[in-house]
Amino acid sequence: MKTFDHLAVIGLREWIALPGLGLAGLRAKIDTGAGTSTLHASDIEPFERDGQPWVRFTAHLGSLVQSRQRQREAPLVSLKTIRSSTGHTQTRYVIRTDLVLGDRHWPVEFTLACRKTMRYRVLLGAKALIAGQLVVNPALTYVQGKPLLPLPTTPSGVR
What we know:
Elements: E1 8-10, E2 13-18, E3 23-30, E4 37-49, E5 52-62, E6 67-83, E7 89-101, E8 104-113, E9 122-124, H1 126-131, E10 134-136
Parallel strand pairs: 1-10, 3-9, 4-8
Antiparallel strand pairs: 2-3, 4-5, 4-9, 5-6, 6-7, 7-8
């Protein structure tokens, strides 16, 4: 069996932080079947800042029982049409922000979507896993522990 020393192992669920949005202590579910990552958001409103497209939204943190809300703003990267496993399509706003998982730190694109009926407010998709050089052991959870305070991103994007 091949092993790859440069890849970090994560579990099916992990603690993450999104320091660019000032969000920490988020539980994320790993979804290798999804290409793009998703952040639970509502009240999504596009606007312009200095002639550039931005988006304002309410980020929902915590669990279904103890939800906390934070107003956030981020540059708008694009709009993306997402097709669910049931065939429904939805157009979503896409932002890019730094993700911290364990001791790694790199930029990830997130679609903003309502996940109020879902247990996990954040999904990490395959593109984020590839960029972070991560492999998933679905038999494990919370392997990496809560992220340390984030460090600045290196030129390569991954710490």
